[in-house]
């Protein structure tokens, strides 16, 4: 039950599918005048003109930030300013946060923090801070989508602000704040198994009472809209991810409201999006042939064959065909190349990760977005095994996905044999080797693959876990920082420069510029070289980690301060995050 619920509920949690700034001033959708000056539906053969304009303005900021990043990286034989000024176009860098429940949200938060120059402690010496500032796009799926949603809806506060200052008690996943409490599960879940589904809903924390989730749903029902379990899940998550404020966890806010956020309007942050999959009515199979739908501040839609359409996010719920009113925004879309989905008056969305593509890469790596580099921040599976990006790779060859460009990757046992999940790996280092993968002349970007692994904390927490004590939450985030910073740069003092080498690679190739000796060294160290090692089944059945590899020997955790090793969580982890020693005990009970 739990499993089914979570799987079906993890999607679109933050999106109140109504008009912009809900005209009712509440969770209930309301009617507004349609715009007369533009079509609500368009063909999915390019990015929108709004996105084009936005990205153009964003590039002025990313170019500047990238120059700062590259300058601080001390790349040898390289003049960042000259290079970017003379570039054939502005580099497009993207960040992709995988699914994996709260594990992915928290590890992802650490990875995000490590890439953000506002995080105290990551940027002073040789950090990767500044990459978030240099990025054009940012996407999340499921747990990664909660992270992206929580940040984007609030105009991108820093992780430090949320976790350390936290005036709004966000991301509080402690026992009393968790979505389902133990007491409620026993009292409500058990009866639910005998058919009392209503009772189950009431088990959700915050459902009952004045301004409860129940009341919000009632308002939507009263306005003539059906509610589903996703409404409940979304509003329950809102109580953890969004500030309570005067509007009761942003009950009238919509995804398209991001357009009006100051940071978005000023192009201060990357273009945010979350993704889901569409289910065909005739098949219950969850596989790569399901179209990926993205939700960005301007549009919801898909580049994939079956839908090939985009719809204005602000007017979701509008009838655009003279047929029966239903909410499928793509109803009878003439652009869809397979009519099954668009001929159904209802659009059935499912969790983005159900086809095992747990990273939102297919839509980011569409040829239309011309990425140069993308960070694949993989917190799927307990310890990731590469499966997610393998799915993206395979998908690009299907008829359904006629626009994605993804570099070559090996199979799962190669990921394990060559330690590709234990240490950062670059895929697609050589554009010349990928001419067969190019679509309309767009070659795949370099993928900078960073998988969840333990350094200071056992961060392979359960997908279904709903409860994190405050120290556990902070240790998850700290471990995500370690993964991204290579244990606070203790494993490679040139890591920042090596990432810089990856970020400039495509533009160097466009101009035929030879790599420096330093970048060649970096690429020899971090690029997957094309070797494969394929065996059936799990290559490392009981995996443990060294600092840079996988092993079946025993292991211990590390500390960011060299010379000390420690168990489970070090004092330094916690003191870094500003805790008192007393609170340490929370971790062990
Ligand atoms: C955005 O702000 C403008 C004015 O600043 C306002 O007219 C408009 O309704 C706002 N849109 C949304 C979606 O809140
Ligand atoms: C972060 O980077 C941005 C963009 O380059 C810059 O304007 C800002 O000053 C930097 N902030 C910090 C704290 O370094
Ligand atoms: C500027 O770019 C052109 C190609 O676009 C290249 O031929 C030239 O070498 C570049 N100059 C510098 C100083 O990088
Ligand atoms: C870059 O060089 C400066 C000056 O030599 C030094 O202070 C700084 O630590 C170096 N940064 C990196 C990332 O090596
Ligand atoms: C989380 O919520 C609980 C219950 O309201 C509260 O006691 C605690 O102080 C909150 N904050 C943290 C960081 O745990
Ligand atoms: C709500 O659900 C009922 C029962 O499934 C259905 O008959 C009705 O058409 C739905 N209403 C709307 C507005 O979709
Ligand atoms: C939603 O927020 C508004 C304030 O914006 C508040 O008046 C209303 O009571 C809230 N509704 C619910 C059900 O919480
Ligand atoms: C629409 O999809 C639903 C759910 O899969 C299915 O039951 C229904 O038959 C479909 N309707 C049409 C007209 O295909
Ligand atoms: C180079 O291309 C071949 C296919 O032509 C591919 O099999 C191989 O994996 C690629 N190497 C790398 C490092 O991507
Ligand atoms: C992977 O890591 C293990 C443990 O550090 C090491 O023994 C092994 O040689 C590495 N494998 C490769 C192919 O580098
Ligand atoms: C992994 O390490 C732990 C000790 O940290 C040990 O108990 C366990 O047996 C190891 N696993 C394997 C497969 O060796
Ligand atoms: C990371 O390394 C820097 C420079 O060595 C140091 O100042 C900082 O305290 C370290 N951070 C942590 C969390 O250990």
How would you describe what is shown here?
The structure is a single chain. This protein has 589 residues and is α/β, with parallel strands linked by helices. The chain has three domains: 51-170 and 263-526, Cytosolic phospholipase A2 catalytic domain (3-Layer(aba) Sandwich), CATH 3.40.1090; 177-241, no CATH class; 544-586, no CATH class. The chain is 33% helix and 10% strand. The protein contains 20 helices and 15 strands. The protein has helices at 2-9, 49-72, 80-85, 101-114, 131-134, 143-153, 159-165, 182-193, 197-202, 213-222, 229-241, 262-265, 339-342, 387-395, 412-417, 470-489, 495-511, 517-526, 571-576, 584-588, and strands at 41-43, 93-97, 137-140, 271-278, 292-295, 299-302, 309-312, 349-351, 373-378, 425-427, 446-451, 544-545, 550-551, 557-558, 565-566. Helix 10 packs across helix 11. The longest helix is centred in the first third of the chain and has 24 residues, at 49-72. The chain binds 2-acetamido-2-deoxy-beta-D-glucopyranose (12 copies). The site of one 2-acetamido-2-deoxy-beta-D-glucopyranose has 7 residues, from strand 13.
**Which ligands, by name, code or SMILES, are bound?**
2-acetamido-2-deoxy-beta-D-glucopyranose
Low-confidence regions? 1-20, 563-589
User: What percentage of amino acids are in beta strands?
Assistant: 5-15%
**Overall CATH class of the largest domain:** Alpha Beta
Measured distance between first and last alpha carbons: 27 Å
- Named CATH architecture of the largest domain: 3-Layer(aba) Sandwich
Main sheet? 11 strands, mixed
Overall 3D geometry?
globular
Signal peptide: 1-20
Family: Belongs to the lysophospholipase family.
Domain PLA2c: 33-533
Pfam family, one: PLA2_B
């Amino acid at each position: 039950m739990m499993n089914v619920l979570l799987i079906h509920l993890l999607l679109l949690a933050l999106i109140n599918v109504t008009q912009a700034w809900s005209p009712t001033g509440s969770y209930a959708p309301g009617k507004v005048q349609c715009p007369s000056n533009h079509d609500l539906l368009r063909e999915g053969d390019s990015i929108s003109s709004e996105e084009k304009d936005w990205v153009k303005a964003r590039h002025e900021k990313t170019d500047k930030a990238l120059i700062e990043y590259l300058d601080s990286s001390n790349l040898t034989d390289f003049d960042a300013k000259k290079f970017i000024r003379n570039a054939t176009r502005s580099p497009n860098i993207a960040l992709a946060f995988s699914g994996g429940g709260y594990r992915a949200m928290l590890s992802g938060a650490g990875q995000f923090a490590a890439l953000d120059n506002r995080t105290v402690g990551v940027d002073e010496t040789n950090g990767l801070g500044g990459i978030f500032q240099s990025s054009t796009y940012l996407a999340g799926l499921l747990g990664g989508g909660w992270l992206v949603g929580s940040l984007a809806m609030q105009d991108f506060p820093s992780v430090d602000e949320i976790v350390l200052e936290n005036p709004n008690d966000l991301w509080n996943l402690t026992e009393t704040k968790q979505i389902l409490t133990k007491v409620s599960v026993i009292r409500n879940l058990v009866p639910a198994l005998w058919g009392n589904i209503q009772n189950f809903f009431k088990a959700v924390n915050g459902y009952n009472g004045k301004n409860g989730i129940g009341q919000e749903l009632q308002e939507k029902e009263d306005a003539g809209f059906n509610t589903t379990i996703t409404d409940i899940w979304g509003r329950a998550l809102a109580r953890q991810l969004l500030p309570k404020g005067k509007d009761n966890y942003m009950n009238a806010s919509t995804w398209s409201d991001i357009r009006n956020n100051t940071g978005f309007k000023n192009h201060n942050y990357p273009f945010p999006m979350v993704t889901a999959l569409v289910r065909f009515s005739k098949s219950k199979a969850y596989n790569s042939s399901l179209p990926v739908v993205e939700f960005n501040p301007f549009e919801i839609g898909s580049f994939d064959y079956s839908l090939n359409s985009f719809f204005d996010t602000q007017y979701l719920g509008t009838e655009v065909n003279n047929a029966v009113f239903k909410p499928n925004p793509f109803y009878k879309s003439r652009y869809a190349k397979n009519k099954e989905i668009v001929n159904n008056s209802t659009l059935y969305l499912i969790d983005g990760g159900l086809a095992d593509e747990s990273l939102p890469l297919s839509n980011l790596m569409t040829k239309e977005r011309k990425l140069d580099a993308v960070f694949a921040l993989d917190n799927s599976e307990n310890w990731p095994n590469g499966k997610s990006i393998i799915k993206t790779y395979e998908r690009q060859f299907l008829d359904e996905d006629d626009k994605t460009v993804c570099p070559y990757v090996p199979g799962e046992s190669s990921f394990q044999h060559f330690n590709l999940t234990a240490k950062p790996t670059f895929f697609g280092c050589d554009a010349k080797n990928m001419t067969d993968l190019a679509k309309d002349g767009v070659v795949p970007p370099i993928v900078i693959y960073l998988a969840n692994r333990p350094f200071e904390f056992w961060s392979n927490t359960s997908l279904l876990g709903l409860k994190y004590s405050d120290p556990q939450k902070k240790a998850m985030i700290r471990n995500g920082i370690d993964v991204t910073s290579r244990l606070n740069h203790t494993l490679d003092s040139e890591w920042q420069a090596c990432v810089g080498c990856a970020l400039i690679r495509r533009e160097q190739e466009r101009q035929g510029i030879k790599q420096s000796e330093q970048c060649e060294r970096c690429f020899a160290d971090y690029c997957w070289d094309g070797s494969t090692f394929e065996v059936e089944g799990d290559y490392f059945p009981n995996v443990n980690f060294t600092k840079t590899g996988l092993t079946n020997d025993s292991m211990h955790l590390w500390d960011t301060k060299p010379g000390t090793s420690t168990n489970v969580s070090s004092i330094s982890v916690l003191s870094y995050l500003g805790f008192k020693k007393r609170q340490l005990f929370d971790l062990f009970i």
